[in-house]
Amino acid sequence: MRNKKRILIMASDQFGYSTTLLKYSQYSSSIFDITYIGWDYNLPKIELAGVRVKYISREGNLLKRNTRLLRAFHKEISNSYDLIFSTYVRGISLIKLLNPRSNFLMYIDTFGVMSSASKRFIYDAILKFEASFFANVAVISEGLAGRLGRKNYKMLPLGGECFNTEIKSFEKLELLYVGTLDNRNMIDCVKGFHKYLQKQKINGSGTIFRIIGDGPNNELEEIQEYVKTNNLSENIKVLGYLPQNKLSPYFKNANVGVCYVPMFSYYDYQTPTKLFEYLISGLPVIATRTSENEKIIEPWAGVITEDNPDSFCEGLNRLEEQKSVFDSSRIRNAYNKHTWKQVVESHFIPIINTSID
Questions:
Q1: Cα(178)–Cα(202) distance, integer angstroms
Q2: What is the model's pTM?
């Protein structure tokens, strides 16, 4: 039997907490011999059969822990891998320069998304400079490649898991948002949903908006306070962060997925993985008008809105009017090619093999 090709995945995330890297590993570990090296955030350890994980301490200041991580990368590369799959980490170009004969694939799934324009500018400039050291680069979208200024690149799109296979009823809207609250302005959705309830004269628990996620800047508390002040606890359920293995019941109950990304230029070419998870699970979506969302969402699979409460409210009214058009089986079947398993088999594994060969 032929030996598996040895792949090293280098990242700043603790293993299992980047959904993308977890799914790449999960669905390709039968094909490749995978080692993952990244920081230890002291979060619960996630184990995956067939994947060796090496944790690096985050003790010390920013410079010390970054240097420790880069040194660990450099040392691990000496173990002769067929391919080094690296996400962007500050200083990664030094690792490329120190290992000129090693085979790298640089993976870029985001530019800076911090709220400060000056911080984004600096982050993006350094990322583009460091990426220029790598001949072999993969990105998640053509728009991202354009921002990177690359003509030669590999396309490695995102995917999603299916959390529900049941046929949906759309008698009453049950909205679900799953994702980070960091810099997402989710309070606008909450206010828009409140306006919708008032216009439709809806009271009671029939029409529900469940919000799963958390953020570092009191976003969760802001939403909870709004719900409390406006007596909306019957209609808006704020659940905080939940791991992926706890999400299925919420996808089962919901019949609309909320993909609300503020229409900032730095989000325009980045598709949230939850968009695919809603669609693959048979949920039509209400989503903001980003370039990637407009490419993906068909008229029979959801509605597009602007990023403000009034537009979100109007989008919910359109969902209410169009709900007889929605067919969860049609939506699921149309977007099934975007499951993580399909994405790994049709994109990730071929790209890794091509990069090695």
A1: 24
A2: 0.85
